[in-house]
Amino acid sequence: MSKRRVFGVIVGVIGMFLGVMGARSALAGYKSDGPLSIGSTYFYGAFGTVRNTGNASQYMYCYVYATATPYVSASCYATNGAGASASCSTTNATVVDAIQKLNSDAYVTVYFNSSGTCTGISSQNTSWAPPKVL
Fold this sequence. Notes:
The protein is α+β, with helices and mostly antiparallel strands. It is built from three helices and seven strands, in the order αββαβββαββ. The protein has helices at 3-27, 47-52, 93-100; strands at residues 37-38, 42-46, 59-67, 71-79, 85-90, 107-112, 118-124. The model is unreliable at 5-27 (pLDDT under 50).
C-alpha cells in the first residue's frame, strides 16, 4: 500500500473518531422547546414550553375528577397560539391513572378519537424539555 493511501486511511479513521466524539458531546445538554402541536386525533407538547410562551392564549392541561360514589374521570385540553384547539375526556381507569401521574414539566402526547374520548396518553420526563418558569 502506498504512503499516500495509508495516510488517507489514517486521516479517514481519525476523522470518523472525531466525528463520533463530537456527536456524543453535542448530545450532552440537548434542548428543545417541545412546542404545542394539535392534530385531528392527538396533541402534544411540553408543559414548560406552553407555560413559558409569550402567547397568553396558548395552554395545555389535564385534570382528574373523582367522587366518593365512586366515580372517576379525566380530561385534557389544548389550544395553540394559532387558536386551534382539542380536548378529550375519559372514564377508562388505565388512562385516568396515567393522566393522574403526569409530571407538571413533562412532554405529553394525548390521543383521542372523533367522539372526544381520550384513548391514550404518553408522558416523557426528559432533560431536553424546559421546566416552567414561574
